[in-house]
Amino acid sequence: MPISLSDSGRTSPDLKKGPVFRAHCLVWVCLLVAVAADAQVLSVPGATSSQTAASAEVRTLLTSAERDGGVVIVLPDVTPQELSAISADPKTPRLQIGFRREIPAAPRAALGFRRLVWKALPHGLASSAVIRSLGAVAIRAAMHVSSVPEGVEIRFFSLTDGKVYEPLTAADLRRDGSDTLVWSPVVEGDAIGIEWFVPNDAAVDGLAITIPEISHLLGSVMGGLGEIEKLKASGSCAASALSPAQIQLLLTSPERRVRAADSRVAALLAEGLRRSATFGDLVVALHRTNVIVYIQTAPHLPRSLDGRLMLTSGPIRQRYLRIQIRPDGSTPDLVALIGHELRHAIEIGEAPEVADERTLIALYERIGYPEGQHGYDTVAARDTGRRVRMELGV
Question: Which of 101, 241, 292, 307 is most buried, judged by most C-beta within 10 A?
Fold first, then answer.
């Protein structure tokens, strides 16, 4: 991992590729404020690790008895028109696993902060509501954020399995600026519970958050992972271990951990999942971490680079990585390159202390080996890239 200078003038670790790629990939630590692919939407993933949601540690402020008097909204039955809208367009690689449902004006007004029933707590006020969409496998709620005072928290919980997700803070809600759409975690079941907390030194009137719609999901990555892992535990290692439906979930679910920023990468991910069991293992393994990886082609990269991986700044409970690859290689070589980088993403995902440049360098000083002056790589990443390439064949 040679140490090179980034645009900011700070040193950044650089991971070299194995001989099969005849180039190397920079791992840069960058302060990326927002991910370009989702610049206007903050999509918070579901509970995929103890760091993103742990019902044993994260609890609602109100008891179930105290929530009994809260607002309950039951949306109308799903119409045939809504179901027909999810049919996949054969011209687009992005398949839908659900659809948006608007919350009608009257129920939406019932979620207004002046109309909610607030319970006094030692340090502030709390209120809750439930939104139900019958027939959904999972739900996430969209919040339109205009104004939120410091100290406000919003928790989401499942009525199906009792999971409570880590609260969204005022900083999380303001992440993309004012007048943005912020999505909740994906909550299993046909109902999503919402709990608001306003501290004593903040006024309820200062809140300007509405819930205009929900996403009614007919599939869930976390629900599908159980079947995938049973297959792998049985000893099957064929590429066909992932069914087309499971591949679709891994590529399109709102809670997916590996995300394509352009159509070329989307095609490469689909190819890897279809033809390489190792590649599928990597994508599935990332769903057990608190890392989200965005991958994009980058024609502007220097000729000496296959690609680069950047760690963005942000809360330790949810970390973001961006992989950039040169688009001019063959499909098998590019899939193998992505596989190599996804192995590094797992290395970071399995190291919860990595949150900045210092801790990233410390990780690779510990798990890597010298590669040239100030350079390190890992045996696991090099072997992974070779294995993916071999499974793809010619």
Answer: 307
Dihedral of CA 363/165/143/84: which sign?
positive
Q: Which residue has the tokens 């000893």?
A: 235
Same domain, 256 and 311: yes
For the chain, how many structural domains are there in total? 2
Residues 83 and 205 in one domain: yes
Look up tokens 């409570």; give the residue: 164
pLDDT in tens, 19-34: 333 445 545 444 343 3
Residue 86: band (very low, low, confident or very high) from pLDDT cuts 50, 70, 90:
low
Based on the domain organization, do 194 and 120 belong to the same domain? yes
One-letter identity of residue 241: A
Verify that 22 and 54 share a domain, yes or no: no
What global pTM score does this model have? 0.56
Average pLDDT score, the chain: 74
The two structure tokens encoding residue 197: 């907390």
Name the domain boundary from 217, 234, 256. Answer: 217
Residues 198 and 313 placed together within one structural domain of the fold: no
Say if CB 6 and CB 27 are below 8 A apart: no
Nearest alpha-carbon partner for 334 in 260, 264, 252: 264
217, 238, 260 — which closes off a domain? Answer: 217
Q: What's the CA gap between 317 and 54, in Å, rounded?
A: 11
Span between the terminal Cα atoms of the chain, in Å: 30
Considering the domain architecture, whether residues 180 and 308 belong to the same structural domain is answered as no
Report residue 245: phi and psi, to 5°.
-65, -40
Contact 196, 116 (CB under 8 A): yes
Region at 231 (left for phi over 0; alpha for psi -120 to 50; beta for the rest): alpha
Taking the C-alpha atoms of residue 130 and residue 139, their distance in angstroms, rounded to an integer, is 11
Residues of the domain holding 27: 4-38+220-392
